[in-house]
Amino acid sequence: MNHLLSIKELSQAQLLDLLALAKKIKNNPADYRHALDGKSVVMLFEKPSLRTRVSFDIGINKLGGHCLYLDQQNGALGKREPVSDFASNLSCWADAIVARTYLHTTIEELAEHGKVPVINALSDLYHPCQALADFLTLSEKFDDVTKVKLAYLGDGNNVAHSLMYGAAILGATMTVVCPEGHFPADEVVTEVQQIAEQNGGQLILTSDLNAINEQDAVYTDTWISMGDDTSLAEIEAKFKPYQVTQALMDKLGAKYFMHCLPAYREVEATAEVVDGEGSLILDQAENRMHAQNAVLVTLLS
């Protein structure tokens, strides 16, 4: 690994190794207290954040490293000065760059022109750190995460893309249920199907909730992505049938509910599900730090 731009760049062995390392760091934090001694990580954020910023900042500190946060008050990436200059300048001082951007091309430019590892903390196409945390969470609940059946309901967005790649690499079965016109990107679907076939996994795409069989976990996300100005009324008209309710969870036999947060109760999922006994949302949030720490240790050791 030179960077983490997307989960799709990982082999099955690399993905399983990252999950195993994340568990070690989580369960034995003292053993990694000095893993990043003398290392500095710059975080470039174009978008607001709670979990991503806090989990990286505190996680880097727990590993003995130093974190510097830069928001766009310092000049928008590519506007105040070229992304290539951002990357080359930061490489003079920092040991790694964590970037949360609007466009994935910005992440790619940082990796191309920088001389240090770049970690994608979210772009319009992918959210690899979230997916790593999600599969870490599932691996804590299931002895063999490669056998998990995961259903994703809602918008085929960056989170869905990363979950799809992760499931395909692991050889798991993932069902993606979206309203017409809101499926994942065609090129992502094609790649995921090829990867799934190689690893004995399966990707199922449908708009019909009645076509879904039993699932181990059900995942959803907000119906409106950050920065989208589509009216809630227009979105609800399309997505309301895909709301995750307790009745749906029972019908699918799903023990666990997952959401990357922030969650809007009684919108994409009911409060009964979001706050229910089977909800893993806080486990996922906590595991962001451990999964990201595993990436940092792997890239900077």
TrEMBL record:
Domain of life: Bacteria
Protein's pathway: Amino-acid biosynthesis; L-arginine biosynthesis; L-arginine from L-ornithine and carbamoyl phosphate: step 1/3
Molecular-function annotations in GO: amino acid binding; ornithine carbamoyltransferase activity
The keyword Cell wall biogenesis/degradation belongs to this UniProt entry's keyword annotation: no
Domain Aspartate/ornithine carbamoyltransferase carbamoyl-P binding residues, every copy: 3-140
Compartments where located: Cytoplasm
Entry EC number(s): 2.1.3.3
Keyword Transmembrane helix included in the entry's annotation: no
One Pfam family here: OTCace_N
Keywords recorded for this protein, A-Z: Cytoplasm, Transferase
Any Gene Ontology biological process: citrulline biosynthetic process
Catalytic reaction(s) noted: carbamoyl phosphate + L-ornithine = L-citrulline + phosphate + H(+)
HAMAP family linked to this entry: OTCase (MF_01109)
Family: Belongs to the aspartate/ornithine carbamoyltransferase superfamily. OTCase family.
Protein name (Swiss-Prot/TrEMBL): Ornithine carbamoyltransferase
